[in-house]
Structures are given as structure tokens and as C-alpha cells.
Amino acid sequence: MAASRTRAGRVSCDGCFFRLNMLCAVSDSSPCATFRPNRPEGLRPPSQLRLTFRKERQLQVAWSFPPPSEQLVLHA
Prior knowledge:
With 76 residues, the protein is mostly helical. The chain has a domain at 1-38. 26% of the residues lie in helices and 0% in strands. The chain is built from 3 helices and no strands. The protein has helices at residues 2-9, 17-20, 68-75. The longest helix is centred in the N-terminal third of the chain and has 8 residues, at 2-9. It is rod-shaped. The chain starts with a helix and ends with a helix.
């Protein structure tokens, strides 16, 4: 984790995708929040976490309606 912090500290506009492709609209020479590294494959979105589904849990019903035969006995 410390290596990623030091790498992020050395970021400059010279390695920015937008600056190298003349797409940068910022006149300041310091790196901005839109910095994206220039890679041979082009501009890539940041990696995202994968969505994994859990097994469905069987619900245990604490209370339910009595079956129709028992309801007839109760209300007759």
C-alpha cells in the first residue's frame, strides 16, 4: 500500500493521457483531479469490484395463516 502512495505522489502532467493527446483544458502545470495515465491501450476506466451473488437463504416464517380446514373449525 505504501508503494501506491509514493507512485501517486510522483504524478505529473507529462504522463497524463489528456495532456499528451492535446485534450487538456487546464492551463496549470500541476496534476489535476482528472489525471489519467497515458497507456499504449489508450484511456481505460478504473477497475471496479465484481458483483457476486450469495446463495439465497431459506426464510423461516415465524407465523403463518392456518390451513383452510383449520380456519373452518375456528370460525364455524
